[in-house]
Amino acid sequence: MISASPENVTVSPNATMTGLAAPSRGSSELSTWHVDMPAGSTGPEHSVSREQVWQLTAGSLEVTYDGRTEKVSAGQTLVLPPGVLRRIHAPERFEAYVAMRADGVASVPGTEGTRVLPWAR
């Protein structure tokens, strides 16, 4: 059993991620987390090495990837393929649960190397 706890919360300038299942919390293959992004926020352009599945539970987001922008609303599921540059924008506050293989890392254009997702470890 995994419960949300303050030590598994990461606050960025654009969103709050609460880590749920992850290798550090007993999962061997998958990571899941909750995202809460306030209205008007936009995350950085980045890519992730693993597929991500986003289930929106409140509000809506706009995701720009692969040369197009899609709106995703509460009750819908977004599947983002690995290695594709994307940017998430919150035209209104949204909440989502995200699932990904536990070994995924992020890359940001113009920076060297990769970044681990601390909420997914």
From TrEMBL:
Sequence ranges assigned to domain Cupin type-2 in this UniProt record: 34-92
Pfam families associated with the record: Cupin_2
Region described as Disordered: spans on this chain: 1-49
Superkingdom assignment: Bacteria
Composition-biased stretches (Polar residues): 1-17
The protein, known as: Cupin domain-containing protein
